[in-house]
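Recall the central idea of this unit: under ordinary conditions, the amino acid sequence of a chain determines the structure it adopts. In this exercise we apply that idea directly, starting from the sequence alone.
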Amino acid sequence: MAETTVTIASPGGLRVRPVSRIVQESQGYVSDIRFLVDGKEASAKSLFSLQMLEMSHGKEVVIVAKGRDEQTAVEAIATLIESVVL
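Accordingly, the structure predicted from this sequence is:
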């Protein structure tokens, strides 16, 4: 299992477009990838599930992956979240 925590820096939080990019990226990995935010959990491969997490500015997101490519998946998705600035 691989895990990392990132803080959402984008003033607008993670809206539909960036979340869609996260889902696309996540679907390229074999591992099961989950997001944990404020005690809620969602699959990183589901747009609807991620939107329900209400990932606003300043919130911490724990990214957890289990599988063959777990470390690569966690690092790539964390980098993607950190790159969202709008």
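The first helix runs from residue 16 to 27.
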